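Reopening this ticket.

The earlier resolution said the output was attached, but the attachment link was broken on my side. Pasting everything inline this time so it's all in one place.
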Amino acid sequence: MKGVSVLKKIFYSSFFLAAVPAILIMLLLTPFGTKSRLKVEQVNKNASRCVYADLNSDSVSEVMLSGKGVPYFFILIMNNDMKVYDQWNLQDSMDLDMSDFFIGNYDHDRYKEIYVFTYKGDSLFLNINEFFDPTGTKLDRLYITKIKVVNNKVTSIIRPAGFFDTNGDGKDELFFSIQTGFGVEPRRLYSYDIVNRSLKTSQLTGEICQFPKMVDADGDGRPEIFGLMGASGNSKTWYPFTDWSTWLMVFNDSLKFKFPPVEFPGLTNNLDIYSYKKGNLRGYVVAHNTGSADTTVMKPRIMFYSLDGKKIREHLFSEFGFNTFTRLVVMKNRDKDRIYLFGKYFLELNDQFEVIKRVKSPFNYQYDNSYIEDMDFDGENELIFYSSNDEKLAVYNADLRKIAEAKLKGTVDPFRFSHYSSRDHENKLFMNANGGYGYFLQLKGNIYYYLGYLVYPGIYFLFFLFIVLTKRINTLQVVQKESLNRRLVTLQLQGIKSQLDPHFTFNTLNSIASLIYLDDRQLAYDYMNKFTQLLRGLINDADRIYRSLGEEIEFVTTYLDLEKLRFGDKFNYEIIISEHVSQREQVPKL
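Inline output:
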């Protein structure tokens, strides 16, 4: 019993009663802000054509700015203070829609090179400049191939894939792809041997390989090359691997197929290909999307292929609740590959394509692009999403936890990121957002984030205060009610006393006793009957403040009758009631 009493005392205590609703509300609350704060610094419009890189390995970034002078296109190299080191004038035309310049280090020394593709007419050239090495590589107008030009506009796009030493001479070859609209030629993968000035190509196909990636997928120390493959339907002429279908293609570093290409028939299909490794499991995760109205085209899905091109498993995107374009991303985190699908929800899948995490998209509209970058320079990549309609950039970690977001103007075109490092060892990510926008992004700890946790004890304290005040008010109300009841009882007793004076009561009882003593039984009975009637009315109406006028007259009449029985003819009384007076009228007891 003592234990039960103690439990009751605990359960009914204000501390416990406040904890229950407070905990329920805390569980339903979303996090208060994010642990990190994304500092966004917009720079002038020209900076949207800037790229930052440490060209001379001194841990301080140089600034490269491209532009059009008279008569040359140029790349300007400056320090952090925007003081000019040098200017590289290009003999041919430069088109950032065709190819942006990029940075590499094919000879593995302390000096990086700048690579830029230029064109003259329909001829494509490669230009290389190792600025900070006096004896370094400086090559202009290395002829590559013919490109597609329609109405004096280049329709080819060149995208770098990476560098790898294929022939073992200690110097890397440059790998890149050329994709072409309104025609097929020259849709190929290329590798350029800078030392020997020689070019290798993959076979001509109708397939477009966009955003090529170089990854050692099979673990043999040599890279495989693959990317976003698309079917554009630009040519009705027969080519190997027609562009009226999309093809799953993976190339080795000799630009030969790793396995026979797998066909996905239908116009506007595309395949996004990523390598995947988990323990002894290796292969390719492939996302298939289509914008075709043709209902015979296979439905969008995610697939897993072995290293030799055999399909192992697949799931329709509709099985995950996606009915629109769905983006696949495979990202390495903590030495393991993680699979994500992004649409109206952000999903993480295991290698069996089972959902292991689901979060809602932070955008009101479809986001435009996603990126993988190391925002805080800790060696682990973050996921970056941007929606031009929402004008919002959101940053997530590998566990799909939003760590920062910021309002930011940009376009639907892909962003370009580069690393800025100052003399003071301050690291920032520079983002070319196109449309004239350039931004420095810096992910910092949010010092106000942990203040949000004060809300939780605040919620508990408010409930505790509410319950304590409620108990106090209830106690005061009970006290006031009891006090009122005691006063009411006192008033009732006083009312009874005022209605039936003790002196009168004792006199009446003495009179009845005298009549009994004188053996006048009838009169004593009448006297007692009247007195009993008076007491009954008094007791019955004890808790009433009001009664009808008729009841009051009846009570007074009984009282006067008792007095007359006692005093006889010594007094007479008469009660006169006007016919206009209602005896139902409520009056205070007198």
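Reporter confirms the inline version is readable. The mean pLDDT is 86. The first helix runs from residue 2 to 11.
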